[in-house]
Amino acid sequence: MNLEEKISPIVKQLAPSGIRRFFDLVNTKPDAISLGVGEPDFTTPWHIREACVDALERGMTSYTSNQGMPELLEKISQYLSDRFSLAYDGQSEILVTFGASEAIDIALRTLITHGDEVLIPEPCYVSYTSCVQLAGGKAIAIPTSSQNGFKLRAEDLEKAISPRSKVLILCYPNNPTGAIMRKEDWEPIAQVIKKHDLLVISDEIYAELTYRGHHFSLASLPGMKEHVILISGFSKAFAMTGWRIGYVAAPEILLQAMLKIHQYTALCAPITSQIAAFEALKNGLSECEAMVSQYDRRRRFVVKAFQEIGLTCHEPQGAFYVFPSIQPLGMDAHTFAEELIQEESVAVVPGDVFGPSGKGHIRCSYATSLDRLDEALRRIERFVKKKRKNILLSSIS
Amino acid sequence: MADPLRLEILSLLEENARLTAEQIAHMLDLSKENVEQIIKELQDEGIILKYGASIHWRKAGKRRVNALIDVKVTPQHGYGFDTVARRIYLFPEVQSVYLMSGAYDLSVALEVDTMEEVGRFVEKLASFDFVVSTTTHFVLKKYKEDGIILDEPDKDRRLVISP
């Protein structure tokens, strides 16, 4: 039996993750300093872990309601209101999911039918395009560039729209660029969204990691709530990646439709993680704030270091990534990353892993201690100097 | 009101005293000279007391004896807690002295090389007129000191590359 032939053509056509291939290479260098990690270096704060341990000891091991524990839903509703001026009803407009990842999948499957176009500003997180394809849709990239700080501009959005455009996936603060959108950046975008009746899947997983100012949620603009499916989670803000716990908030009709998929495919998010998430929102915001101020220090340190190395780097104002350009070195990002890991044992992620408009850039995560960042940047500096010298020598000879 | 910039520099140095003025300047978006000036002020004002390393002595093969002594005292006229404490904290083997609320007055932490030395120190203490009683507790094992968990290496368990 040819098993290969049995695999659905939709799955066959999915591109293998570019990160995966690079991951194998990095694994041959166990002592490498990694700036390739897309998760916090902090461990989940102890009181959150302790709440989970306590719940396990008390025997909290059952299913919960499909939608999530009522007290957690209520807490999320209150949190969204307090932090981002958003009004979502805990009983009917919020659903607890297996991380933001499940939320993205069920949101797309709820909205997309065969041939629908989904617009995605690029560079972007690696899962969106594949999730669109799995839902039967067609992903249309909207390139953004460092000249505009990797923000989405209304004219670029307008240009990408066709009669089949249905959904726009947004992720600000952005992985991999660290770009954010302020209120004034959103206003013209909101006009285009209204004009074309687009639905937005807004992945705001990095919302708390916004520096010098507060995150502004698109759904809080007048008239925008009915256009937006808001997705977030606990991974980045509370250092809870491995707990796989997130949520989606949307107008009731859409939320109830997503709930149908969730109840048949996931049943409910793990009760242990839901208990931990409740504790995070109840007592964890000050720790979140402390982690954000640490990221901010590192961010300033890293941006300055890249400027001194001479690699242009727009200032990221969110998430924990910098996305410097390596174009002056005349090498592509994959070669850069591969030679850097081999010669200096520092891992970074080539920018085109996040789509063609990321080419010529590398993504460096600063979710790593300052000591290690300092050492990594020294090594990158030495590496870049060597490459520059080579360019110079080859131009002379 | 404490200056937030000074507090930020202090917390950076508390975490890692080896940061250079230049590195701190990068992190806080200041000039190197500015940071040097602030650090000098903090030293001059006695806010930064010293720059040291946190050392796991047992792992380094050095065995030390730690004891905590609860001391009850009777302050006398013109001879208050501060004077009593001073008589005790000037001994170099004394690591810390705290005035406490509750069942006793002074908490004295001692670090020496042998148990005999603890005995000699307690004897000396008990002979002071102002000391009413002492209770000595030996430390059997240290789990966490100065905010650092001793025998749990700070290991990065994350995947090297993740999206």
TrEMBL record, chain A:
Its cofactor is pyridoxal 5'-phosphate. Keywords: Aminotransferase, Pyridoxal phosphate, Transferase. The lineage of its organism: Bacteria, Bacillati, Bacillota, Bacilli, Bacillales. This is Aminotransferase. It is an enzyme of class 2 (transferase). It comes from the Bacteria. GO terms for molecular function: pyridoxal phosphate binding; transaminase activity. GO terms for biological process: amino acid metabolic process. Coiled coil: none annotated. Its EC number is 2.6.1.-. Residues 31-380 form the Aminotransferase class I/classII large domain. It holds the Pfam family Aminotran_1_2. Belongs to the class-I pyridoxal-phosphate-dependent aminotransferase family. PROSITE patterns: AA_TRANSFER_CLASS_1 (PS00105).
Automatic annotation (TrEMBL), chain B:
It comes from the Bacteria. Transmembrane segments: none annotated. The keyword Membrane does not apply. Residues 7-63 form the HTH asnC-type domain. InterPro entries: ArsR-like_HTH (IPR011991), AsnC-type_HTH_dom (IPR000485), Dimeric_a/b-barrel (IPR011008), HTH-Siroheme_Decarb (IPR050684), Tscrpt_reg_AsnC-like (IPR019888), Tscrpt_reg_AsnC/Lrp_C (IPR019887), WH-like_DNA-bd_sf (IPR036388), WH_DNA-bd_sf (IPR036390). SUPFAM superfamilies: Dimeric alpha+beta barrel, Winged helix' DNA-binding domain. The keyword Manganese does not apply. Keywords: DNA-binding, Transcription, Transcription regulation. One of its GO terms (molecular function) is sequence-specific DNA binding. This is AsnC family transcriptional regulator.
